[in-house]
Amino acid sequence: MNRYDFIVIGSGPAGRRAAIQAAKIGRSVLVVEKGRRVGGVSVHTGTIPSKTLRETVLNLTGWRERGFYGKAYRVKKDITARDLMARLHMTLDHEVDVLEHQFARNGVETMFGTGRFVDSHGVEVTLDNGDVRRVEGNKILISVGTRPYRPADVPFNGTSVLDSDEILEVPRLPRSLTVVGGGVIGVEYATIFSALDVSVSLVESRPSILEFIDHELIEDFTHQLRDRGMAIRFGSKVKSIEFENDWPVTILENGRRMRSELLLYAAGRVGATDSLNLASCGLTADERGRMKVDPKTFQTEVPHIYAAGDAIGFPSLASTSMEQGRIAACHAFNIAMPPAPDYFPYGIYSVPEISTVGMSEEEVRHRGIPYECGIARFRETSRGHIMGLNNGMLKMIFSIKTRRLLGVHIVGEGATELVHIGQAVLNLHGTLEYFIENTFNYPTLAEGYKIAALDAWNRMGAL
Ligand SMILES: Cc1cc2nc3c(=O)[nH]c(=O)nc-3n(C[C@H](O)[C@H](O)[C@H](O)COP(=O)(O)OP(=O)(O)OC[C@H]3O[C@@H](n4cnc5c(N)ncnc54)[C@H](O)[C@@H]3O)c2cc1C
């Protein structure tokens, strides 16, 4: 068969969720994937590998126990790259296994090769052995994701100057690391390596890191990083990268030089749309390879061709990509969808982790909404004492007029899980009273919600 109801190009979170959604309602679905296994960046070089690495590092270093036993405490002495890789491969194999099984159960066909459009319904797939297959789709989803941005003047060499895909294959742990790029990926890797006691410098040309996050949270976070010895260089661009005795030296425009054993260049990613021959179906991508879509339906300018996931840009998360894929498939096959909730959470798996949902204090102020904040420190909770936490905070923002929750911002242990309580209250339009009136399990970090609410209530008063 070479005609399908739905052709999905790319098997990352957006593609796989769309494919399964369409297959579940009985449509014939083909997923075209140029990698050797399904899963996309999320499974092979992005989300899952970096989170597995983080978990392994936290376990082997005994990071979570250091509040009690001191900075020198380690579960395993002399941690090697091999220790880190072992768990990585096991996790990835398992993830791929689950995915392949999902596809098989739902009757989704896969074809391994690089897809390119020949016209608006036709896709040509070049297989690994050079054979070319032609397939037709009534509806087509572009979910090809991104690849690391590699500017020509950065001397990537696969050994000491690496991008964020290559860092996963690092053969031995460096003693020092410079990370260029204070976005999510740069910050995650910088803090993971720092937890391994690697000497880390983080370079960001803007005046701060993670600028889209509530600034009070970032101040707390940056303070924690500096406190444990990380060198953070804001506000200066990289002028050049040179080598001194094989070690890369990062030279900033302000004249500062940073020499380290390894350099990770993590300043952005570009959409992998260049190989798709988009012109053949009347579509284009911007200079960073990203495509424009209708934000409600994920249709491109050619209505039967959809695009979802990182290939359409912000927010470029696996979580949101899956939802976009599902919505695109539902729209393509006329499955009714309720309107999307107002807010989705953002999780940053740095050490410590950060998670946020809703409006930041800067945004609330910018919109002119009268507001009040409430803050809880994890060290104020009994759970925090039990866990030996010295850091961590939960901040909530409420409207003074309606008392509705406007935003939740958390830095510290469990932030990416805890945030979902706030997300539920926010999207269900709950108010300060929800947190005041409800009982929370004790002792938990979630109790921080009640403490932060009481903190706001002290200034806002009763209803
Ligand atoms: C280091 C790192 C850490 C991350 N951490 C998180 C996190 O903690 N949480 C989170 O939510 N998100 C995280 N992300 C982001 C997340 O990985 C992406 O948002 C997600 O993978 C995007 O999914 P996608 O479906 O758009 O495509 P991708 O996962 O990028 O997959 C695209 C697939 O398309 C294939 N492809 C490309 N071109 C073609 C072609 N022409 N023909 C056939 N196949 C093709 C590729 O081989 C690939 O398999 C992280 C990303 C990185 C890089």
Could you please describe the fold and organization of this structure?
The protein contains 13 helices and 21 strands. The radius of gyration is 24 Å and the shape is globular. The protein has a five-stranded mixed barrel with strand order 1-2-3-4-5. A five-stranded parallel sheet has the order 7-14-8-9-10, covered by helices on one side. The protein is an alpha/beta fold and 463 residues long. It has helices at residues 13-24, 40-44, 47-61, 66-69, 81-106, 184-195, 215-227, 318-332, 361-366, 382-387, 415-427, 432-437, 447-460, and strands at 3-9, 29-33, 109-117, 122-127, 132-142, 146-148, 161-162, 176-180, 199-204, 231-234, 238-244, 247-252, 257-259, 262-265, 269-271, 305-307, 346-348, 354-358, 371-377, 393-399, 405-411. The N and C termini lie far apart (65 Å). The structure holds flavin-adenine dinucleotide. The site of flavin-adenine dinucleotide has 39 residues, from helix 1, strand 2, helix 2, helix 3 and strand 3.
